[in-house]
Amino acid sequence: MISFTRIYLALICIITFFSFYIYLSKRINESLISKEKKSDKRELVLDLIQNPNEFVLKYVDLPFDFGYGSNSIPLVISALISNGDFLELGIGSFSTPLLHKMSIDYYRKLISIDTNSDWVDKFKLYNDTRDHRVYLVENFENLEDKIGSKNKKWGLVLVDHIEANKRPTHAKYYAEKSEIVIVHDAEKSSEIYYQYEANSLRSSFKQACKFSIYQNKEKTSYISTLILSNYIDLTILESIFEKVKTEFGHVACNLSF
Ligand SMILES: *[C@@H]1O[C@H](CO)[C@@H](O)[C@H](O)[C@H]1NC(C)=O
User: Fold this and answer.
1) Which atom of ligand 1 is nearest to the CA of 121?
2) Structurally, how many domains does the chain consist of?
3) What residues form the membrane-spanning segments (predicted)?
4) 241: CATH
5) What's the gap in Å between 169 CA and the centre of ligand 1?
6) Mutate to test the pocket of ligand 1, among 127, 129, 130 (most ligand atoms within 8 A of CB)
7) pLDDT tens profile 149-202
8) Helix, strand, coil fractions of the chain, as percent rounded to 5
9) In a domain, 206, yes or no
10) How close is the Cα of 134 to the center of ligand 1, in Å?
11) pLDDT digits (tens, 9 = 90+) for 32-50
12) Domain containing 152: what range?
């Protein structure tokens, strides 16, 4: 009887020991993998700081478009310094293919949303790919329900849709839900439509950086893209943008409007 109890206890000891061993080795493995991921990211960002044009020109075609494509460079750079999936509010002939390619290369899911069925139809084929979904919605209210992404934390959200005066509200909504939020058309001359300043969009974020591109040689008009974050130190953007902007660009980080 006694020896039976001993065997029983010994068995329990052995099982406990092995369970603990398996648990511990799993945790060590997990932490090694996440460390590896982090150092991969650090290497990528270092590479980006050194050779930003290598990355930009992989996703943005020359000659650069200084109109609808004026957010392309900030998109590429912001995608690379952030972690997590992409959400695009408003489909664009420059931003959508660009983010699509980056989503493939970096295994980051992409959701593109628009209220215009013609636009959605043009890009519908993306819906049949691995990581990209395209949605037609009536409006951008209760979006999380419509696309089934409640409580999701995004890597990058681009707010570039047609509901001009609602852009500030939508951008603010993602202030804590995305590592980076980008709004397009943030130049002074368009404030009347988008009202980013009137709605003090900047105050919802710790960091902001503005990338502007002149639309003509005379430098009489420009389009700005505003990059906002509560998670990432955007001061690194300044030196990166300075290297890629060409004479058509202008960079202002650490903004406080
Ligand atoms: C894309 O696929 C999703 C399901 O994965 C579907 O809900 C959505 O309606 C599709 N979009 C289009 C434009 O067909």
Assistant:
1) 13
2) 1
3) 6-24
4) 3.40.50.150
5) 25
6) 127
7) 888 999 999 999 999 999 999 999 999 999 999 999 999 999 999 999 999 999
8) 50, 20, 30
9) yes
10) 6
11) 667 777 788 899 999 999 9
12) 54-253
